[in-house]
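During the second year of the project, the team shifted from modelling isolated chains to modelling whole assemblies. The rationale, set out in the original proposal, was that interfaces cannot be judged from single-chain predictions alone. As a representative example for this report, we include one of the complexes processed in the last quarter. Its constituent sequences, exactly as entered into the pipeline, are reproduced here:
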Amino acid sequence: MIKATVKDERLLTHKTECLILFSIEEKNPSGKLAELDTKLKGIIKSLFKNKRFEGKLNQTLLLNVAKPIQADHLLLVGLGKGIEITADKLRQAAGTAAKYAEKSGLETISFHVPADDAGKAIYAGLVKSDENFVQTVVEGGLLSLHHFDDYKQPAKEKTSRIKQIFLLANLKSQVVSMRSAVSRGQKLVSAVTASRDLISQPSNTATPSYLADKAREFAKSFGMTCKVLTTNDMKRLGMGALLGVAKGSEEPPAFIILEHHGGTKDDPPIVIIGKGITFDTGGISLKPPPNMDEMKMDMSGGSITIGTLTAAASLKIPLNVIGIIPASENMPSGTAIKPGDILTSMSGKTIEVLNTDAEGRLVLADALTYAARYNPKAVIDLATLTGAVIVALGHQAAAVLGNNDALIAHLQQCGEVTGERLWPLPIWPEHEKAVKSDIADLKNIASPGVGAGTITAGAFLKAFVEDYPWCHLDIAGTSWSGEEKPYTPKGASGFGVRLLIRFLEQEAKKTSLQKNDK
Ligand code: BES
Ligand code: ZN
Ligand code: ZN
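Output from the structure prediction step:
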């Protein structure tokens, strides 16, 4: 990962290839931009006047500049109208600028950080959400520059890459707090990019055992504990739903448990569960060939869980957090489960498998049962569970369902700030009824005609949720993107890590308040 460094140097004297300045949408340049403009004999003002640059969100303008400014280029990037600026717009603008500089063949970029008083208009939306300017810029900049190139031969393709990022302090007094914000931003980015890389790995590399090895590796580096249950352990626990899915594959399944002990010993933990299907062929209910390759991302929830736990540990969040990843392939074979087969889950409930492609809910069922042994404060599962969520919400938001309105609302609020939107869907008694089987306790798909595919999947999960607050995030539409976005490349997005970390940090604050009350 590229390193971002704070420079205690001023705008006019700092030597760099590219000086990046944020601008709000306005008629004339103001603040630092206006100061710079006088040095540049009115060039910037005339660009605003000719509407070559107006500060619209993610608008960019690259200028060659000369003395007295020490930078080779000036890159302006728009934030949109002052009153509408949010943390995510700043993150986008930072990403757009960094990416633009990279595509222009530049290698060193420097972001100007306004002092609190000079940057009021920019800060307004951030103040509201309690987000830090520098951290947000680091997130946007570094996330936009992440590439997955494990399989590219380095010599053959000439690629221009940003090698250094500086953040310029406007005042000496900003430096210390800027350094800690940069460090926080880097830790988050490193967790998100680790998740993205796991998701991008093809399934012939990223098997359940590979995920388990990676989890062990991260546990060792960040001081977490990691336990991996094998097929025999799962048999002993009666995890018939997970084992049913795994039965069709030559690759053994893995039930991965990561633990971050940041709270006191008997603090009930927050459990995060991530679907870990390392490839989803559909099984005997085989998927059609077009785009089946994308089903290597069906372990996105698991990868996000690993990334979140890693960030929680590296940021030393004072909470106990458990990550659970039920990992398996979903394959068609002579040993695979067949439509109509009945499985007995760890909870004791039996499941009629009417479609082997609805496998995610099967592996999650046993994980939800297992989670109860932690007596958790809350359980959040993340899964690329249904194509139906793409019909409902497209790629703009993940669906959130659950049994606790406060938990749903809190997660949704966190997503607004981090730019990882969640949109609630209900689970009504009719939906719960729709997954009851005639001959077993449950069936893994609702009868034809019921519709509401994302909700009935949620209703199925709810049957395995015990007496704890629970939320399910269906990330099938947000985990993978067919197009490049300001700070997200094509492919794996890493959706969920920053959202969950914000959630955990706020929970930690609440917990410490409660402790102070006692
Ligand atoms: N992994 C898929 C869901 C999915 C679809 C993820 C598109 C990412 C993009 C899941 O296991 C699945 O196949 N779901 C079925 C459920 C159906 C059989 C009830 C679906 O959505 O078609
Ligand atoms: Zn499936
Ligand atoms: Zn799946």
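The first helix runs from residue 31 to 39. The longest strand covers residues 320-330.
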